[in-house]
Structure formats: C-alpha cells, structure tokens
C-alpha cells in the first residue's frame, strides 16, 4: 500500500495529523507534511504505508476535506 499527498491542495485543517502520525503539522506554512515521503511531482509526496499503519492511512485520507491524500493498493486507488 502507498499514499500520495498533494501538499499544494492541502488547506491546513490538519485532520490527517490526528489520524496518522506520519502526517505532521507545519503551522508556519499552514500545510501538513508527510514524514518519510519523497517528492515525485510538484508538491506531490509519496511513501509506502507499513502494514501496521494501513488503517491509519485510510482514516487520514478519508478525513482530508479536500482529498489531498490518496491511498493505493497495487496501483488501484482505494481512497478517496
């Protein structure tokens, strides 16, 4: 499973931070950061999700009010 986070789309509600500790609040920028991720496109950050964090990653994606977080399983989009 992997997660993609579009930081440009993020509006800084930080609901993802409450759901998964891989997300961190960057209050200076008013955006979240995805720890352990790599930037793949402009402001799109990608990382693998450990098995023990899969549910948390899904909750983080569902909690995002602007769908800035997308969860994939074997290249199939699960959420949103």
Task: Give the key terms.
five-stranded antiparallel beta sheet, Alpha-Beta Plaits, 80 residues, globular, two-stranded antiparallel sheet, alpha+beta
How would you describe what is shown here?
The chain has 80 residues and is of the alpha+beta class. It has a single domain (2-79), classed as Alpha-Beta Plaits (2-Layer Sandwich). 19% of the residues lie in helices and 39% in strands. The protein has two helices and seven strands. The chain has helices spanning 15-19, 54-63; strands at 2-6, 23-26, 31-34, 38-41, 44-48, 69-73, 76-79. Strands 4-5-1-6-7 form a five-stranded antiparallel beta sheet, with helices on one face. A two-stranded antiparallel sheet has the order 2-3. Strand 2 (23-26) and strand 3 (31-34) form a beta hairpin. The chain is globular, with a radius of gyration of 11 Å.
Structural class: alpha+beta
Uncertain residue segments: none
**Sequence of secondary-structure elements:** EHEEEEHEE
> Beta-sheet strand percentage?
35-45%
Shape: globular
Biggest β-sheet strands, sense, barrel: 5 strands, antiparallel
Termini Cα gap: 14 Å
CATH fold title: Alpha-Beta Plaits
Helical content class: 10-25%
As for the number of domains, it is 1
Architecture (CATH level 2) name = 2-Layer Sandwich
Chain-wise SSE layout:
Layout: E1 2-6, H1 15-19, E2 23-26, E3 31-34, E4 38-41, E5 44-48, H2 54-63, E6 69-73, E7 76-79
Antiparallel strand pairs: 1-5, 1-6, 2-3, 4-5, 6-7
Protein name: Ferredoxin
Pfam families: Fer4_15 (PF13459)
GO molecular function: iron-sulfur cluster binding; metal ion binding
